[in-house]
Amino acid sequence: MNKVLIENCLLFNGISDSLQEGVSLLIEGERIKEISEGRISADEAHVVDAKGRFVMPGLIDAHFHALAADPDIGRLDKMPRYLLAQHARKNLEGSLMRGFTSVRDAGGADYGLALAVKSRLIEGSRVFYSGKALSQTGGHADFRTVGEEGPPLCFCGQSSNVFGVVADGVTEVRKAARDQLRTGATQVKIMASGGVASPTDPIWNLQYSEEEIRAVVWEAASWRTYVMAHAYTPEAIYRCVEYGVKTVEHVNLIDEETARFCTEQGAWAVPTLVTYEALENDGPELGLPQVSLDKLRHVREVGLRSLEILKAAGTQIGFGTDLLGEMHRYQSREFLIRSEVLSPLELLRSATSENARMMNVEGEFGVIAEGAIADIIVVDGNPLEDLGVLQGQGEMIPLIMKDGEIYKNALA
User: Rounded distance, CA 130 to CA 140, Å?
Assistant: First the structure.
């Protein structure tokens, strides 16, 4: 069994507000075997000297789109599938080099992509995938334009595209949810309001009826998992949470009453603020349609305010980015944007142990503890004092370990 011993760590375990100096970590196989504040004796272990550097759990991005090769996601279906797969490889490998050992894909990724990562055909972030997001006709995953005739694309008997499945009515929605769960989806994604990237639905549009949402929630619960929902407005967020949705994504337009309701119900909010900055800066040059640019301004202006409202209400906040195309390179800027409202400790917890708890993998991921999966990064500098050390493309992260395997080591 592969053994790695990391010595002389300044340890942030993903939870505690205090750091431990001089810590040693013994990894056997894919798990952390032993943690000690002194030396550990381990025959035949590969020894890595952290030399007092900051050591923490691998980061988790809870709203990622591996197959988002283009900011106009309606164009993805015109791209060859093998080309899309290479874009997914690039996006996942870049994410891992930025210290994100896991991502929760919010629409598009599948079993094959997750398996390619697990088997190291792609040396990228681990993928918790939703499969295809569920959308009503004319919803956020229906990318037909206003003047486009005919039904959506058809896949396996259902209207489908790279990102989503178009399903209407309780029977179709149940079937679509069951099909994603059949393929191993770790959660089910639904579109519950209008969105920026879709051409025909205004942001304030409510999507899916109570009966349809409750049907998806029941199907997910029957597989001991949960539903995540794309939702911008207070009404869209409130009804999702009321009907049993566990995590609401984006939430830019949330108000105080709705945030308090999320807190009371134990729901999670996953803001994705960096994508609006990136889309506004780069979207026009990359060909984002004007209809999307117009909707973008409406949600970007209130992004930080939504974070203030969530914090004041005590709502559980996950860490996600929702970046598209070449804009994936801005992934770590989410830390800096949120730092105007949240402390570095709150941010690091959100991107490690809190995301793991939200995703039903608490204790396995997002934490450095005995028995946990060995997802570990070493950082030059202390991100609790300077979040700048997490910026860029991982230049200040000399060591990256996932599943007990070293993917980058610039310490030697």
Answer: 15
